[in-house]
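Researcher: Good morning. I'm working through a list of sequences from a screen, and I'd like to move beyond sequence-only analysis. For each chain I'm collecting a predicted structure so we can compare shapes side by side. This is the next one on the list. No need for commentary yet; just the structure.
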Amino acid sequence: MPIDAAKALAAEPRTGEITWDRRDVQLYHLGIGAGVPATDPDELRYTLESRLHVLPSFATVAGSGSPGVISGLSMPGVEVDLARVLHGGQRLEIHRPIPVAGRATATGRIAAVYDKGKAAVLVMRTEVADADGPLWTNDAQIFVRGEGGWGGDRGPSARLEPPSGDPDKVVERTVREDQALLYRLSGDYNPLHADPEFAKLAGFDRPILHGLCTYGITLKAVVDTLLDGDVGRVRGYATRFAGVVFPGETLRIRMWRGEDAVRVAVSAVQRDDAPVLADTLVEHS
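Model: Good morning. Structure tokens for this chain:
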């Protein structure tokens, strides 16, 4: 069996040093669509080094590209075909604001392996700390088609009760035709997002946008719309990837404001509001 759950869970954590600087932060922000309009003071906080702050979802690429997905596929007990892999969900816990430049230690391990019947789900946990203590904890749910059915634990349900009433805010964000090509420069070079032939092998008629790019676009929309543009207010951010996004499409982002959290639903406008992100929650101060 390509996935040996016991071996994966028993494997020693992998620890390494990661670094990042303002250029990495700026490139990530551009990769999720920041800088439009280019001279807008609110956008300059994402693009101009003298005003720069860090959107917390940068943690998903800081230092090593996409550690939760790519590194998880090379852990002991895991041997799968990349064309069968999809990113099922993501949860990020922010312990304190991410500095514009940093050096930290990242420790990654397989925290759980779930049997969903027709698929397996790996939970790759990455904990990052610098000299001053913990910075963030990242959980990536890696969905591997065709690798379930061994009788293992199905795991907890990630489904939330649907939000009630009309959303408090609705915004739309256009995904550029070259968005995936720009975003992959932050480190996730999976050919699914650039190579048409590989995309066809994976069952898509053309390359799709990285789920984590949509994840970043959505968090930026919430911060800019409901959190007064203050990235430091974000405490946690979780989502389930419910569908794909194709470069060139428009995202419709619906937000429901709560006391200390924002519920979010994201859909693709051109495909009759097909769900893209579901069970999405941004926790904040």
